[in-house]
């Protein structure tokens, strides 16, 4: 009957939508994991550069003291 066809189409649409929603959830989780990994890498780079900066400042201070004396 016509009602069965409508019900079948609705069921098909619901199942398709469920699949799309699952794909979106997986994609969102994957993107979040990738962003967290990038965040860790960038934080490590910032820490490394901060250490290098501190070391160079000490070296600069030592050179200034040497040539001012």
UniProtKB/TrEMBL annotation:
<keyword id="KW-0804">Transcription</keyword>
<dbReference type="InterPro" id="IPR024874">
    <property type="entry name" value="Transcription_factor_Maf_fam"/>
</dbReference>
<keyword id="KW-0175">Coiled coil</keyword>
<dbReference type="GO" id="GO:0000981">
    <property type="term" value="F:DNA-binding transcription factor activity, RNA polymerase II-specific"/>
</dbReference>
<keyword id="KW-0805">Transcription regulation</keyword>
<dbReference type="Pfam" id="PF03131">
    <property type="entry name" value="bZIP_Maf"/>
</dbReference>
<keyword id="KW-0238">DNA-binding</keyword>
<dbReference type="InterPro" id="IPR046347">
    <property type="entry name" value="bZIP_sf"/>
</dbReference>
<keyword id="KW-0678">Repressor</keyword>
<protein>
    <submittedName>
        <fullName>V-maf musculoaponeurotic fibrosarcoma oncogene homolog K (Avian)</fullName>
    </submittedName>
</protein>
<feature type="coiled-coil region">
    <location>
        <begin position="28"/>
        <end position="66"/>
    </location>
</feature>
<dbReference type="GO" id="GO:0000978">
    <property type="term" value="F:RNA polymerase II cis-regulatory region sequence-specific DNA binding"/>
</dbReference>
<keyword id="KW-0539">Nucleus</keyword>
<dbReference type="InterPro" id="IPR004826">
    <property type="entry name" value="bZIP_Maf"/>
</dbReference>
<comment type="similarity">
    <text>Belongs to the bZIP family. Maf subfamily.</text>
</comment>
<feature type="domain" description="BZIP">
    <location>
        <begin position="7"/>
        <end position="69"/>
    </location>
</feature>
<dbReference type="InterPro" id="IPR004827">
    <property type="entry name" value="bZIP"/>
</dbReference>
<dbReference type="GO" id="GO:0005634">
    <property type="term" value="C:nucleus"/>
</dbReference>
């Amino acid at each position: 009957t016509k009602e069965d066809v409508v019900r079948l189409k609705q069921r098909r649409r619901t199942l398709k939508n469920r699949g799309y929603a699952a794909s979106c959830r997986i994609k969102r989780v994957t993107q979040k994991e990738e962003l967290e990994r990038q965040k860790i890498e960038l934080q490590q780079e910032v820490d490394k550069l901060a250490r290098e900066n501190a070391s160079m400042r000490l070296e600069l201070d030592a050179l200034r003291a040497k040539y001012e004396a």
